[in-house]
């Protein structure tokens, strides 16, 4: 057993996860850490039919949970946040092991879980509708938001626990159970979160004096299934799963969305991003530099909001690119557990090969590339560390328009703001974007209807590192879904319009007369 595998075993024990060896002949997931590439453990896949059983249990739990007052549902999420605070260091270390994140980013991911729990607790007292003026005398119209039903959550490796929490915290306070399929690359963190949720349920039940039936219901509010793409498809197709929230590649979304649509179900898609930063002539270049370095090369380029394109004005292009090159060369690449590391590993060899393929295509399209080489192969022969890459492009070519999940920053020059905005928007994806400028007119133009077409548009900060208070998501091939803050909770509820007649007559709307008399 490798050092990383031993460390993972100790963390799992601390988090209450008890792993049993797979039975002979069982299909398994081989869990490897990106840090050293070594095998951590093997986990059995759920059998065929698991989604049917999970949906049945979730539907049964929903029948009771939906009737619990929303502030009481919020109390469970409050307790979950409390449990996460207590176990933050251990869960964050497990995120580092399984996803390869540096320690501060892994801790930040768990903090994001805590933050969304806090948000959802307040939300549980704010699930409000509207009172609407009626045209009919002695009538009142109103709008309510009611629990929707079981929610399927499919998550990606790069945020193995935070994205689940964005969905689950809101779904739970909105009255819905959750069926979670984590990435095959990060199942251990999901099992750990399931145990922590179970601990929260135990505390919640004890405080309420819950009986056996209520405890059984609580146990079915979050179910975790370990499976491959076929499990995701089964979730998408299941008629008892009211909403499918899926995070991953555009290719995955194109596979799942028609399956949900075929049964007229709801989907919430958070897919690819190809995010650009515009640096204007008036920009604070030191500020832009800091935003670009983290945005492009933090998390080894494996965020959906990673800065993949730099659109820089010709008048400041060389000065900024020289500073970026110096910063790129200085970035410490290494194990997330090594002091000072800022860039960890790519998730696997396939990601490294995709990076090399993209760089080769860029060169063939006229680019000048610095960086991109494999690092630490002697120390970690089974892992895939890469030097961050800065790619000077002659234009926005085909390879630039594609999302490559790796630490590659493509740099393109521009002359006018119209040209820069056109370049920003001339990609299939529409997640995040940013402009660095001290010109108020430029900033407002970028944020206007004629500006960025992304779901996130920032001024004087980078494309990544979104806070939980805002709705997160984008348009075009990013999928159109919104998660986390603002009014994203409405996706997890159904709207009902109600009219109450408190008079003694029955007038019809729009002046319609249909009087059949009495008797």
Distance between the termini: 86 Å
Main pleated sheet: 7 strands, mixed
Helices, by number, come to 16
Please tell me what the overall shape is.
globular
Describe it:
The chain is of the alpha/beta class. It contains 16 helices and 23 strands. The chain has helices at about 5-15, 50-65, 70-85, 90-100, 105-125, 160-175, 185-210, 210-220, 230-235, 250-260, 285-295, 315-330, 350-365, 400, 415-425, 440-445; strands at about 30, 40-45, 130, 140-145, 150-155, 180, 220-225, 245, 265-270, 275-280, 305-315, 370, 375, 385, 390, 410-415, 430, 430-435, 455-460, 470, 475, 485, 495-500. The longest helix is centred in the middle third of the chain and has 22 residues, at about 185-210.
Summarize the structure.
By secondary structure, the protein is α/β, with parallel strands linked by helices. The chain has helices at 3-14, 50-65, 70-86, 88-99, 103-123, 162-173, 187-208, 212-219, 229-237, 250-262, 285-297, 317-330, 349-364, 398-401, 417-425, 440-447; strands at residues 28-32, 39-44, 130-132, 139-147, 151-154, 178-181, 222-224, 243-247, 266-270, 275-279, 307-313, 368-370, 374-375, 385-386, 389-392, 408-414, 429-430, 432-436, 456-459, 471-472, 475-476, 483-484, 493-501.
Feature tags:
519 residues, seven-stranded mixed beta sheet, five-stranded parallel beta sheet, alpha/beta
């Amino acid at each position: 057993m490798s050092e990383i595998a031993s460390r993972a075993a100790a963390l799992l024990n601390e988090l209450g996860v008890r792993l049993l060896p797979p039975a002979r002949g069982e299909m398994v997931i081989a869990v490897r850490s990106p840090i050293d590439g070594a095998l951590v453990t093997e986990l059995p896949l759920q059998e065929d039919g698991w989604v049917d059983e999970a949906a049945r249990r979730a539907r049964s739990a929903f029948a009771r949970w939906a009737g619990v007052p929303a502030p009481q549902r919020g109390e469970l999420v409050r307790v979950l946040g409390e449990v996460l605070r207590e176990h933050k260091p251990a869960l964050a270390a497990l995120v580092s092991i399984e996803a390869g994140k540096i320690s501060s980013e892994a801790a930040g991911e768990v903090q994001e879980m805590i933050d969304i729990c806090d948000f959802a607790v307040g939300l549980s007292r704010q699930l409000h509708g509207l009172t609407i003026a009626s045209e009919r005398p002695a009538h009142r119209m109103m709008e309510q938001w009611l629990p929707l039903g079981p929610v399927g959550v499919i998550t990606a490796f790069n945020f193995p626990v935070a994205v689940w929490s964005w969905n689950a915290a809101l779904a739970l306070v909105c009255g819905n159970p959750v069926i979670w399929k984590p990435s095959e690359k990060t199942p251990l963190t999901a099992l750990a979160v399931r145990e922590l949720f179970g601990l929260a349920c135990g505390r919640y039940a004890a405080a309420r004096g819950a009986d056996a039936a209520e405890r059984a219901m609580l146990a079915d509010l979050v179910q975790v299934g370990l499976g491959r793409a076929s499990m995701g498809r089964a979730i998408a197709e299941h008629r008892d799963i009211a909403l499918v929230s899926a995070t991953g590649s555009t290719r995955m979304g194109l596979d799942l969305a028609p399956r949900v649509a075929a049964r007229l179900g709801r989907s919430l898609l958070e897919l690819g991003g190809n995010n650009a930063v515009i640096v204007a002539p008036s920009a604070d270049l030191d500020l832009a530099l800091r935003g670009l370095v983290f945005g492009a090369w933090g998390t080894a380029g494996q965020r959906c909001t990673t800065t993949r394109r730099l659109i820089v004005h010709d008048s400041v292009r060389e000065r900024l690119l020289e500073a970026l090159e110096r910063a790129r060369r200085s970035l410490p690449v290494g194990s997330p557990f090594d002091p000072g590391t800022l860039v960890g590993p790519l998730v696997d060899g396939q990601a490294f090969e995709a990076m090399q393929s993209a760089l080769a295509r860029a060169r063939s399209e006229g680019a000048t590339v610095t960086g991109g080489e494999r690092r630490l192969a002697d120390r970690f022969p089974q892992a895939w560390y890469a030097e961050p890459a800065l790619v000077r492009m002659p234009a926005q070519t085909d390879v630039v328009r594609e999302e490559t999940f790796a630490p590659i920053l493509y740099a393109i020059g521009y002359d006018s703001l119209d040209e820069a905005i056109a370049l920003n928007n001339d990609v299939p994806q529409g997640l995040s974007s940013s402009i660095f400028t001290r010109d108020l007119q430029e900033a407002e133009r970028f944020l206007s209807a004629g500006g960025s077409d992304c779901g996130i548009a920032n001024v004087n900060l980078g494309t990544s590192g979104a806070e939980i208070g805002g709705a997160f998501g984008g348009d075009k091939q990013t999928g159109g879904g919104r998660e986390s803050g603002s009014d994203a909770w409405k996706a997890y509820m159904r709207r009902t319009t109600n009219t109450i007649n408190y008079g003694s007559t029955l007038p019809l709307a729009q002046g319609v007369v249909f009087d059949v008399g009495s008797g």
